[in-house]
């Protein structure tokens, strides 16, 4: 019988219940979308880095002999070292009026496990002693619709040379392709090409030498110490100072994206749940005030304090549960769409949306806890109400002169203003909670427009001022 009463009560406040359920759904949807996408992105990144040996340390030099390689490889903590030739060149691509920039990176002529290993999407590996053969990054190939066997002209050390594409690849070093100090990736104007070491070194007079080194480190290695030792070894050869993975552009972009998703998954839902808790408190307080006589009748018929308290908790949880279920469905749909968007920006061998049970259960727990916490004082009031007292109308509040009245300033204010100030002073907790609720709703509006304002500011600064 008491559960049927809960359903009738819920129907009587259906408009308010739907509004609150939608607020809960917004918080749960943001939570599920952000954290599920975050886990998908993080898992894909970690598996890719591990399987394809993404470097921990890089160093650029002017020209260092291959004999230095042995001394670099024995630095304590170094797992694997890759000596490379890395040069930026000008590209002439069909369909483009202006030139593009190509980054040429040397690789072994015979395929062997290496630092920053390549994932072959289609085509084949380069063959030894075949001039002009190159592997191209997938982002550049897709942007220009380049197929296996097509050519791109590159200006290599002052001479034009045809680069014949024999394979399309992905590299953990370039999950996102950004050249130099560019603000955003531009796959049409910046491409990565991998060529055999012998051919590339000969073209740039680096036979038996290298100008770039990439290192992977053993677990527990001291990165700062490795960087210092590497700097000491490369300094005589024009070393510009080694850098760590944290300073790598591609890694930095995806790491920042993960941090933003984590923040979005924690901050935005907190705001929505706070608003929902405030609204539930207002609705339930009003409902309990109206149902004083019903509460007295329930207790008179033998329902205990626990049963009455659970009756109102169930009412709150029903609203919260409806919003949570809707939020989970919407969050999973949005998470899948967001993952598809990331797949066009970040290049992984395998990248798909994976929904995590712990995230869904976490959303259910947090939304329920927020709903119960927001209405705890109202439920406590219903539980502690004696039957005899509940049968009588609620007694009027005890009024005393307020600070405004005692100071004499009230005489200068109109009657309506004095009533407002008296109400605020006599019910400070209620007033404070109302302020918190309003501030949370304003925070939702700010959060919604913040991203667009930020992008507009960055664009204006980059293209208008800088």
How would the blueprint of this fold be written?
Elements: H1 2-12, H2 14-51, E1 57-65, H3 68-73, E2 78-84, E3 86-92, E4 100-107, E5 119-123, E6 133-137, H4 138-144, E7 151-156, E8 159-170, E9 190-196, H5 197-203, E10 209-217, H6 223-234, E11 243-244, H7 249-290, H8 292-300, H9 305-345, H10 357-383, H11 387-390, H12 403-407, H13 415-426, H14 428-465
Parallel strand pairs: 4-9, 6-8
Antiparallel strand pairs: 1-10, 1-11, 2-10, 3-4, 3-7, 5-8, 6-9, 7-8
Give an overview of the whole structure.
The chain has helices at residues 2-12, 14-51, 68-73, 138-144, 197-203, 223-234, 249-290, 292-300, 305-345, 357-383, 387-390, 403-407, 415-426, 428-465, and strands at residues 57-65, 78-84, 86-92, 100-107, 119-123, 133-137, 151-156, 159-170, 190-196, 209-217, 243-244. It has 466 residues and is of the alpha+beta class. Helix 1 packs across helix 9, helix 2 (14-51) packs across helix 9 and helix 7 runs parallel beside helix 10. The protein is elongated and about 100 Å long.
Descriptors for this entry?
elongated, 466 residues, 4-stranded antiparallel β-sheet, 6-stranded mixed barrel, alpha+beta
Question: Could you give a quick summary of the protein structure above?
Answer:
This protein has 466 residues and is an alpha+beta fold. The chain contains 14 helices and 11 strands.
Q: What is the tally of beta strands?
A: 11
Uncertain regions spanning at least 5 consecutive residues: none
Proportion in helices = 55-70%
Helix count, DSSP H or I runs of 4 or more residues: 14
């Amino acid at each position: 019988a008491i559960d049927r009463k809960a359903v009738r009560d819920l129907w009587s406040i259906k408009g308010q219940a739907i509004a609150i359920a939608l607020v809960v759904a917004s918080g749960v949807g943001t939570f599920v979308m952000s954290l599920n996408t975050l886990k998908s992105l993080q898992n894909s990144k970690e598996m890719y880095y591990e399987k394809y040996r993404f470097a921990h340390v890089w160093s650029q030099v002017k020209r260092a002999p291959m004999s230095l390689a042995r001394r670099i490889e024995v630095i304590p903590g170094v797992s694997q070292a890759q000596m490379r030739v890395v040069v930026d060149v000008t590209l002439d691509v069909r369909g483009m009026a202006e030139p593009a920039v190509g980054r040429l990176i040397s690789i072994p002529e015979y395929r062997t496990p290496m630092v920053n290993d390549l994932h072959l999407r289609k085509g084949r590996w380069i063959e030894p002693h075949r001039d002009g053969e190159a592997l191209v990054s997938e982002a550049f190939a897709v942007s220009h619709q380049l197929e296996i066997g097509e050519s791109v002209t590159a200006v290599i050390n002052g001479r034009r040379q045809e680069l014949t594409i024999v394979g399309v690849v992905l590299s953990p070093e370039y999950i996102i392709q950004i050249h130099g100090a560019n603000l955003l990736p531009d796959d049409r104007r910046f491409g990565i090409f991998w060529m055999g070491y012998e051919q590339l070194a000969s073209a740039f007079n680096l036979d038996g030498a290298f100008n770039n080194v990439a290192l992977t480190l053993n677990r527990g290695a001291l990165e700062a110490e490795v960087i210092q030792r590497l700097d000491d070894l490369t300094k005589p050869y024009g070393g510009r100072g080694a850098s760590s993975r944290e300073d790598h552009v591609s890694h930095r972009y995806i790491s920042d994206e993960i941090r933003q998703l984590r923040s979005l998954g924690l901050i935005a839902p907190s705001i929505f749940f706070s608003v929902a808790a405030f609204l539930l408190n207002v609705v339930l307080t009003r409902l309990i005030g109206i149902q004083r006589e019903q509460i007295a009748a329930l207790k008179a018929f033998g329902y205990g304090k626990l049963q009455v308290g659970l009756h109102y908790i169930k009412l709150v949880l029903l609203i919260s549960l409806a919003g949570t279920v809707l939020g989970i469905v919407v969050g999973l749909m949005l998470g899948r769409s967001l993952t598809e968007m990331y797949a066009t920006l970040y290049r992984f061998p395998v990248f798909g949306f994976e929904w995590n049970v712990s995230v869904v259960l976490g959303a259910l727990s947090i939304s329920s806890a927020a709903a119960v916490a927001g209405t705890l004082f109202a439920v406590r009031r219903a539980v502690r109400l004696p039957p005899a007292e509940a049968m009588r109308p609620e007694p009027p509040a005890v009024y005393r002169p307020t600070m405004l009245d005692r100071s004499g300033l009230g005489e200068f204010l109109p009657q309506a203003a004095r009533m407002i100030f008296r109400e605020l002073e006599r019910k400070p907790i209620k007033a404070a909670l109302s302020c918190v609720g309003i501030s949370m709703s304003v925070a939702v509006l700010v959060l919604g427009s913040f991203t667009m304002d930020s992008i507009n500011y960055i664009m204006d600064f980059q293209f208008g001022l800088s």
